[in-house]
Design a protein that fits this description.
By secondary structure, the protein is of the alpha+beta class. The protein has a single domain, classed as L-fuculose-1-phosphate Aldolase (3-Layer(aba) Sandwich), CATH 3.40.225. The chain is built from six helices and ten strands. It has helices spanning about 25-40, 115-120, 135-140, 155-170, 170-175, 195-205; strands spanning about 15-20, 45, 55, 60-65, 65-70, 85-90, 95-100, 130-135, 175-180, 185-190. The protein has an eight-stranded mixed β-sheet with strand order 1-7-6-5-4-8-10-9. The protein has a two-stranded antiparallel sheet with strand order 2-3. Helix 2 packs parallel to helix 4. It is globular. Mean pLDDT is about 90; it is low at about 1-10.
């Protein structure tokens, strides 16, 4: 776990497109699942070592013009407000750029934004994506469930391409959970909505 880069270490360019306001109902839905996952230490902040206090984990849902995602450096925050969410309207893997809106220009989308974007792009039926950290789950599922290459880092276009490859070549569509081989402790789940994404994750974790 000690090799993880700090949350918010961007490997893409985040371009602020102006002020935007998240739908309160969307924020409430995301916060409900975020609270459940924080209770399982799948979202939160490291408690010890060189990463003490550094947050991890993020969620998003599809909206009419893109997707709504938790902002960077929010893992350690117990309850998020609309200010800690970003609306991503465009993601360009070739140019390594993300275009987004938020209530404040000082807020940026999660560093895992590229990964969420690719899943929304490969399947219009995907309505929610959840990214968590859990060492036990990560180790147990490694190479037993769809797993990205260990040479591919988080937050990069390459991670997105890897997930797209797994979507095409593995049983990922049915399982709805993937292991991020090059992102220590990282596990990602998706579904038609937050409930399906969350249920898929909790099923493999062993809790409903």
């Amino acid at each position: 776990m000690g090799t993880q880069p700090r949350e918010g270490y961007f490997k893409f360019t985040a371009l602020f497109a102006g002020i935007g306001h998240a739908d309160p109902a969307d924020v409430a839905a995301l916060n409900r699942w975020r609270t459940r996952l924080r209770a399982l230490d799948m979202i939160g902040a490291y408690r010890e070592g060189v990463l003490a206090g550094v947050g991890f984990g993020n969620l998003s849902i599809r909206i009419s013009d893109g997707f709504l995602i938790t902002a960077t450096r929010t893992g350690q925050v117990a309850e998020l407000t609309a200010r800690e969410y970003c609306m991503v309207s465009h993601c360009d893997l070739e140019r390594n750029q993300v275009l987004y809106r938020a209530e404040e220009g000082s807020v940026s989308p999660s560093a895992e934004c590229m990964t969420h974007a690719v899943l929304y792009q490969v399947d219009c039926g995907i309505g929610a994506v959840i990214h968590v950290h859990h060492a036990g789950l990560w180790n147990r599922l490694m190479d037993r469930w769809p797993t990205t290459s260990r040479s591919v880092e988080y937050g990069t276009p390459q991670m997105g391409y890897e997930l797209a490859r797994l979507y095409r070549e593995s049983d990922l569509l049915r399982l709805k959970v993937a292991v991020m081989g090059g992102h220590e402790d990282g596990v990602i789940a998706f579904g038609r909505d937050l409930d399906e994404a969350g249920a898929s994750l909790l099923d493999v974790y062993g809790v409903r």
